[in-house]
Amino acid sequence: MTTTTQLEEIVRSQQPRELQNIQAVYRLDRKNYLKWFQLVRTVLKGKKKINYLMGTRSKPGDPRFEAWDEEDSMIMAWLWNSMTLEISNTCMFLATTKDIWDAIQQTYSKARDVAQVYEAKVKTIAAKQGSKTVTEYVNQLKALWQELDHYRVIKTKCPEDATVLKDFIEQDRVYYFLVGLNP
User: Fold this and answer.
1) What whole-number distance in Å separates Cα of residue 134 and Cα of residue 85?
2) What are the domain boundaries of the chain?
3) Mean pLDDT, 10 residues at a time, over the chain (183 residues)?
4) Labelling 38: which of 25, 48, 81, 175 has CA 20 to 30 A away?
């Protein structure tokens, strides 16, 4: 019987050579999809493998199919290795990288989800400098604001409205920053 550690080692050994030395800073768990998504997309884009997430592939009759299939399998193994075992088990029997990507996205992507916007806003409002340096505090706020911007996509009909809205949001963020500073 194969143990969890042996299974993880098998998956790790199947990574594409150019992905083997890249450590997944964020292993996908139930709470960090957005950071994991950005990491995976950036790594695969940098390695010119993003097409595997998009589903661009050779057909079985194509002479390049075998090479595509091998690379797709290795990227699948790398994806599984970048997830907690609990999550990777939910997509272990999917056929392609694209299938895994779509399943994970459907399960964990919460873009425009009201609960995620609420949670991000609560964290932003609750952020205080406390024992952090001003730089650490600003970095914390920036990360929270980026997360909020991801979930809360605001569409405007004209460029002037977009500029006014952007200025309003930036001014609001300055106020939140100032409120959280130590006296």
Assistant:
1) 38
2) 4-108, 114-180
3) 50 52 71 87 89 80 84 91 93 94 88 78 94 97 91 84 91 95 94
4) 175
